[in-house]
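Hi support team,

I'm filing this because I wasn't sure whether my run with zinc ion finished correctly. The job status page said complete, but I'd like someone to confirm that the output block is well-formed before I use it downstream. Pasting the exact inputs I used:
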Amino acid sequence: MALYNDQGIVLRSYSFGEADKVVILLSPNRGKLRTVAKGVRKTKSRFGGRLETLTHVDLVLYEGKNLDMITQVSIIEAFPSVREDLDRVVAAGTMIEVADVVAQEEEPARRLFLLLQRGLRALDDSGTHPDLVTAYLLKAAEIVGVAPALSHCAGCGAKEALSRFSFAEGGVLCDRCRTPGSYALRPGVIDYLAILAGADLSALPDPDAAMSGEAMGISRRFMEYHLERKLDSMELIDV
Ligand SMILES: [Zn+2]
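And here is everything the job wrote out:
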């Protein structure tokens, strides 16, 4: 009998059979963890309420053939304020979605886990900073190895005349390397993105309303380009 301990943040869950739920978590130790919680949709379930999306839980699992079975759950952190506000729910939805797409099964994901935990904590503590999701996306890109070049040309390495941004080339381009499909950027946006990429999620600099929208658009589309899928944060998570 193989029982083991692990922890994770619940990414999503769905109904399974008559009364069970499949619960997908991000574990720092095992990456994406697919589990089953038996009987949790019955009213007398002991721990159904502890397995909602976003919740960071400590688990005891029983190793199964396909899905490991949750036998005990305790809440480590529930991020209650995130659930009370629509903007926070939307922001958390994007964070969760990116973590879900990027994480692999049976591949430790310590940095990704910590990023998600810090992102949810920042949302829970201080609400939606306009640049929080942007900073999260840039850090997630770095973790998966596709960090955009922001301080030098992605083509030749030059540090000057950086005027364009290309999703395909992986960051900013100088005047000489600019490609037909690259975007002209508002002056200052690149520096703004570079600061966000290096900032602590819980201590982001004061937002600049003139930059936030474009910075978000670029980082979001950059991530979509590299993940080869749309991010539907408007699809609200069920909390
Ligand atoms: Zn260049």
